[in-house]
Amino acid sequence: MRPLEGITVVSLEHAIAAPFATRQLADLGARVIKVERPGGGDFARDYDDRVNGLASHFVWCNRSKESITLDLKSPLGREALSRLVARADVLVQNLAPGATARMGFDYASLASEHPALIVCDISGYGQDGPYRDRKAYDLLIQSESGFLSVTGTPEQVAKSGCSIADIAAGMYAYTNILAALIERGRTGRGRHIDVSMLEAMAEWMGFPMYYAFDGAAQPPRTGARHATIYPYGPFRTADGEVLFGIQNEREWRSFCAEVMGDLALAEDPRFAGNSQRSANRETLEPILDAVLGKLSSAALIERLDKAQIANAQVNDMAALWSHPQLAARRRWRKVATPQGPVSALLPPGQADARMDAIPAPGADTQAILAELGLIEAKVA
């Protein structure tokens, strides 16, 4: 039995943040009923066609769910949603702020009739405040939260290579829902959860915020190099790149002796301590490059391992698909889709997660409407 078996989640969801949150709940065994609009469903289905004609974002976030298409402006649609909510443990939504209130499906409207219901709203800026009604996409929140200001090169900001603001909001929705389910087990009462993408990203920006405490300068943009620890980042080799990081003075001495072959470098007062190395990185970098650039990547990794210096290959997506550690730990499973099976990773920390099919738009509409007593069940 999976941890959330017997829990029903109804989700008015689209794009990434809410679908990512509810997929985590489905992984743990919850029944997740995805409510989609007629005529195509979740617009994230059309982001691209990279996975056998299906969208990469959608395949990632929507396995193990049931899909029902409802016109929520129609009496049948609203009645179906009302009956779904009456049976649900959790209602998740990331529609525009105020949309569920206008339909009577916000927490304030539902709490008296369904006191055990947990309602989670996910939005860009929250359900109140002066920014409530501003449109909020992932990249916009990366910008608004200051993430872009510390990411990139000195010459140009750079976005995250994945939907980091959506992921942050989705994970806070997921963990808050789990906490609310535990609380409900003690009190019998549900609660309202209001997750903002901006607040999720602001929390994740805690280090650069505190680094810039009380008006101090914020961390500079240093590409893939660490802004305040040096050396820590990718370094060119004779045939590619290797990323490594020095975390303390013991490692610095070992690096100088075993990797650089120059223990005297460890005694240089310009590089005595991380603060000095970081401040003098323009002086230290060519010294490092003169040695590291003559080594193959394999030879550098061998030296770093001998010196017990943490390091990593600079992998691309092809290398991640074939990563030997993921294969050795048997993290891959097959998931059914409307276009045939695809490989999918087990969620971190789980060995027996639910890994059911990704639904076609409205695939379960007739079955769910029959379950709700709104149409007659088809006889096989």
Q: If you had to describe this structure to a student in words, what would you say it looks like?
A:
The model has no long low-confidence stretch (mean pLDDT 97). The protein has 380 residues and is of the alpha/beta class. It is 37% helix and 14% strand. The radius of gyration is 25 Å and the shape is elongated.
Order of helices and strands: EHEHEHEHHEHHEHHEEHHHHEHHEEH
Give the structural class: alpha/beta
Examine the secondary-structure arrangement and name the CATH architecture of the largest domain: 3-Layer(aba) Sandwich
Oligomer: single chain
Give the CATH topology of the largest domain.
Rossmann fold
Number of helices: 16
Mean pLDDT across residues: 97
Largest sheet: 6 strands, parallel
Show the helix and strand layout.
Layout: E1 8-12, H1 17-27, E2 31-36, H2 56-61, E3 65-69, H3 75-87, E4 90-93, H4 99-103, H5 107-110, E5 118-123, H6 138-144, H7 164-187, E6 192-196, H8 197-204, H9 206-211, E7 232-236, E8 241-245, H10 249-259, H11 274-279, H12 281-292, H13 297-306, E9 311-313, H14 317-321, H15 324-328, E10 332-335, E11 342-345, H16 365-371
Parallel strand pairs: 1-2, 1-4, 2-3, 4-5, 5-6
Antiparallel strand pairs: 7-8, 8-9, 10-11
Helix pairs in contact: 1-7, 7-8
